[in-house]
Amino acid sequence: METDHVLRFPATAQGFHDAATALRAILDARPLHPRHRHDIEIVFDEVVTNIVNHGQSAASVEATIRFAEETILTFEDDGMAFDPRAQPAPPPARRRSDLRIGGLGIVIVRELCRHVDYVRTSDRRNRLTLRLAVPDHE
Questions:
Q1: Number of folded domains in the chain?
Q2: What is this structure's pTM?
Q3: What is the number of other CB atoms lying within 10 angstroms of the CB of residue 32?
């Protein structure tokens, strides 16, 4: 059975906080495998954090969560065009001093999702669709 949940919120730190709280309530109402729940939360956090921090004039975000044979997260925003599929992974750190905080969000999202799709819509919005496999024992 497919179920869609839509979260609309301003692309601000407070909007992100409120949306993350709403997402947790949605997830609390479902019998999800703990690892799958964790993956959904991480992907949501990484994508929305990037929109809020780097979207350059993104005023609003719409996130849709669809629970079906796989979990589908779709994010739409009105910020600058950004295709995460086109971004190279950072080079591996060779020394401890090369390590830095940040810059791995896209890498994490790619690792956790079985499919990543991006479209710049005709009305100049970013649409990012991510598909996460559902573990066998949910």
A1: 1
A2: 0.86
A3: 18
